[in-house]
Design brief:
Layout: E1 31-35, H1 36-45, H2 48-52, H3 57-73, E2 77-81, H4 91-104
Parallel strand pairs: 1-2
Helix pairs in contact: 1-3
Length: 105
């Protein structure tokens, strides 16, 4: 499951040029928002047996390695959004959820 040829469609990518890594996106020394929960869920999905048994270590270790890769190798300055933090980029989603919650009540 995934998006074919995702990297050329990300900001900094070129549509007619395939990029082979996040390093080539041109985010070095730029602030990049990063949704920690989505990435952590992705890594948990790669270790389903451990995750379902309550062993979150394999997913968390892989997530931590990915953060190190983005920060140290790619040179991104990450702003990591954890659960419970307000992410301005997701305000429309938060508003949609608030409206659904109010309707449900």
């Amino acid at each position: 499951m995934g998006i074919n040829d995702l990297l050329p469609h990300l900001p900094g990518g070129e549509r007619n040029k395939y990029l082979h890594s996040f390093y080539n996106l041109g985010y070095k020394n730029k602030i990049v928002p990063f949704d920690a929960a989505s990435a952590l869920w992705q890594f948990a999905a790669k270790h389903p047996n451990d995750y379902l048994r309550g062993n979150h270590d394999p997913a968390v270790l892989e997530w931590a390695r990915f953060l190190v890769y983005l920060r140290s190798i790619c040179g991104w300055e990450l702003v990591v959004f954890m659960d419970g933090m307000e992410n301005e980029a997701k305000r429309h989603e938060a508003e949609r959820r608030r409206i659904r919650m109010e309707r449900a009540r």
